[in-house]
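Bench notes, afternoon.
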Amino acid sequence: MLAIASLIYVYNSGYFQASTIQLANDKHDIEAKVKSLEAEVKNFEEKKAELEERNQHLAEEISNKAQIQFQQEFIETIKRNKRSKQNKKKLKR
C-alpha cells in the first residue's frame, strides 16, 4: 500500500513528467546531431568523389606523360643507332 501511495505522490509531484520532458529534449538534441553528422558525411563523400576523380585524371596524365617520354627516348635511341651505323660505314670506307 505504501508503494502505491509513493507512486501516486511521485506522479502527482511531476517527477515523471519532468523526466519525460527531459528525455524528449534529449531525443530532439540527438536527432539534430544525427542530421548534422549525416550532412557532414554527405559532404565528405562528395569531397571524396571529387578527389578520386581528380586523382584518376592526374594518374592518366602521368601515364600519358610517361608514355610520351618513353616514345621520345625510343626515337632518340633509334636516331643514335642510325648515326652510329652511319659513322661505322664512314669509318670502313
